[in-house]
Design goal:
The two termini are 13 Å apart. The chain has eleven helices and eight strands. The chain has a single domain, classed as Rossmann fold, CATH 3.40.50. The chain has a six-stranded parallel beta sheet with strand order 2-3-6-1-7-8, sandwiched between helices. Strands 4-5 form a two-stranded antiparallel sheet. The model has no long low-confidence stretch (mean pLDDT 88). By secondary structure, the chain is of the alpha/beta class. The radius of gyration is 18 Å and the shape is globular.
Amino acid sequence: MIGMDQVKEMVLNTLMTGRLKNGYIVSLILLATPESGKTSVVNSVNSKNLAVYTDITGKGLLDTIKTHSELSHIVLNDLTIASAHSKKASAYFFAILGAATEEGIKSVADPGGTSNYDMRRGAIICTTIDFIHDKRRAWMKNGLSSRFLPFCFSHSAKLQLKVLESINGHDKAIELKPAETIMPSSMIEVKITRDLLFQCERMALIVAKENQELGYRRKKQFMSLVMGRALRKTWKNPCVNKSDIEWLESIQKFISWENAHEI
């Protein structure tokens, strides 16, 4: 889909945080109106470290984590589907999701016995702004909202025109090229200076204040995002540099649960 470069880079940098030796696995939620290309961008990424689901339950999430140790991120193409189960099943799913994306799932005991996991996973979720608006209050109470980094966007009038023209055949639409999804097989340490770390913290605290958060998780997320971006550029002695911080500054306006910015 044309015009989605910023969203695509956000997804790829998020995915790369799963290979950081000294970082934090970032979980991302893409927020936009229907037809905005959220799912198209995520589905363009093909990686053994990524599993894409249309629907998944809490039990299904546990089974996936246990049987696929190579995964760093779980993708849910439509949050409304996973939320359409019974109230009990939906609550269990979000509880497991919250545990997996923060402290990690250690052991689970049920009538069938005890299962050991001892691992964290990230998640990349697609949904609409209206849907998440209804869920936000509950997510703030249980801490789930700060565990996910929201990326809220909309199509500019210019982009809408380009998409419409491509559909009419007046312009040759340039579809998203297959994303570069080659991932390092081992975890890699990425260096970041104290000065650049401070700049990440400054931006994280601004976002946290806007969302009535303390900012601890946002700092870890921002720091890991720029480290993930640095790792995408090179696996040999990767270091965060000024261009990574400038990228973070450019996408800071999209980090919102309700205020969509144009791409």
